[in-house]
Fold Amidase.
Amino acid sequence: MTDPRILTVRPEPDQYAWTFGGAQPMARIAPGTVLDLYTEDCFAGRVRSEKDLVSEVCEFPYLNPQTGPFHIEGAEPGDTVAVHFVSIEPARDWAASTTVPLFGALTSTHTTATLQPPLPERVWIWQLDRARRTALFEARDSDIRVELPLDPMHGTVGVAPANLEVRSALVPDAHGGNMDTPEMRAGVTCYLGVNVEGALLSLGDGHARQGEGETCGVAVECAMNTVVIVDLLKGVTTPWPRLESDTHIISTGSARPLEDAFRISQLDLVQWLVRDYGFSELDAYQFATQTVESPLANVCDTNYTCVAKLRKEWLPARETYRGVHARLRETARALRR
């Protein structure tokens, strides 16, 4: 086995992408390339203290910078890009979270319009202990302090959309994007359907941790040092972003209203069972109904995202995605040695 090519990317401030689609690739890579990446936080590193209000230090729509895009050689519509997360590590000893006016699940928004004023804008700075793997919550209005475990993830992973579309990096949809699911952690392989030549893969929006649903709209946002292995599956389609871990297969769906995001993720899981595990459609529908776990990813973004996950130990012994997850996992282990 030959050693994989490793490409290290540390973008300059003017090199980030702010959209999926419409951005020129920063590099061309061959399938099997290992990307050693730095990603900036969703505020582009501008929220550094409790005094740095998003409305004052950030310029909309320049939020959620992405490292990329990467043109994957040979990728064409109808193929699937596999992105295996080898490691996701906070790049700083602090992270930031905020409330943002007219944004979040428990406040008035531009689309859920009411007479009540927006919630106050406030910043929480979280101290990260990378050696002890903890994130410290410090209340603003009391002396409450709670150490929580780090659970690093990427809120945003995606490729260029279909049909010449250019989508803000704040939006999740069939191309991936800002799904904000805590399932996107180290050890997981993400499958993304290719819509344009080269796929144009980007990622960013690192979270030191996040609860399911990302209720206030902002996680524990931090810059990340992330290593991924990128591979290509020719002739394999993926209608919505899917994930595979050592224990689960996971479908996603992004839409509004929330019920439609739920339906998309559940239908995609049923169709995955039919295609790769030998179920008929109705058998898959019945089996998924009784076995699925359905965490929320986000209920605050332009589209909401739901997840449908199923334990692999309950599935027939069949190969999915040509066994790429197991193969990339072994490559990841070799890289860590």
